[in-house]
Amino acid sequence: MAAADWPKAPAQTAGAVIRCEPGNVSGPRNAPLTLDLYIENVADLYGADVRLTFNPAIARVVDTNSLQSGVQIQPLSGFLSPDFVAFNTANNGAGTIKYVVTQLNPRLPVTGSGSIARITFQPLRAGSFTLAFTYQQLAQRDGIAIPATTQNCVVTFGPPPTRTATPTRTP
């Protein structure tokens, strides 16, 4: 078997992590919360496939592209350029998110850390849920897999702040 016929092995990049930024987020029950999908300590990244689940009884994903059918999260271009977005779907009934993006030639791979997408949740009721990574695959330009771990995050919507009556002085 010729060397060109050998199966591609995963890149030997240790330490890549896919997580939320911030790691855990909380706010009042009546206001949306935003977090980023963040990749850190990666080398030669060219594409990413990230899938997540959330509790649709507590919150829904806010659509960021009203010109396209369905619900989408917001691609970000400060780190990995979203030259081709193969999938960008949020299913508020099932509580799933699928985001698959890649750069295109002649763009160079990226190394380091940064956000690749932004998710805004609109609360439906007070409560907490784990935004859980169910699948992830990072890849180099030539399709070689980049090993990575994931860190789930917790999203919490609490009761709205209570107003306290301010005492007034009567003459």
Please tally the β strands and state the result: 13
Number of helices: 0
The helix fraction, in percent, is: under 10%
Distance between the termini: 98 Å
What is the mean predicted local confidence, pLDDT?
90
Largest sheet: 7 strands, mixed
Which structural class best describes the helix and strand composition?
mainly beta
* Low-pLDDT segments, ≥5 res: 1-13
Written as H for each helix and E for each strand, in order along the chain, the element string is EEEEEEEEEEEEE
Radius of gyration: 20 Å
Categorize the overall geometry.
elongated
- Beta-strand share of residues: over 45%
Mind explaining what this structure looks like?
0% of the residues lie in helices and 53% in strands. It has no helices and 13 strands. A hairpin with a 5-residue loop joins strand 10 and strand 11. The N and C termini lie far apart (98 Å). The N terminus is likely disordered.
Throw out a few tags for this protein.
single chain; 171 residues; mainly beta; six-stranded mixed sheet; 13 strands; 0% helix; 53% strand; elongated
Short synopsis of the structure:
This protein is mostly beta strands and 171 residues long.
Write the layout of secondary structure elements.
Elements: E1 16-21, E2 24-28, E3 33-45, E4 47-53, E5 59-61, E6 74-75, E7 84-91, E8 96-102, E9 110-123, E10 127-139, E11 145-146, E12 148-151, E13 153-158
Parallel strand pairs: 1-12, 2-13
Antiparallel strand pairs: 1-3, 3-9, 4-8, 4-10, 5-9, 6-9, 7-8, 10-11, 10-13
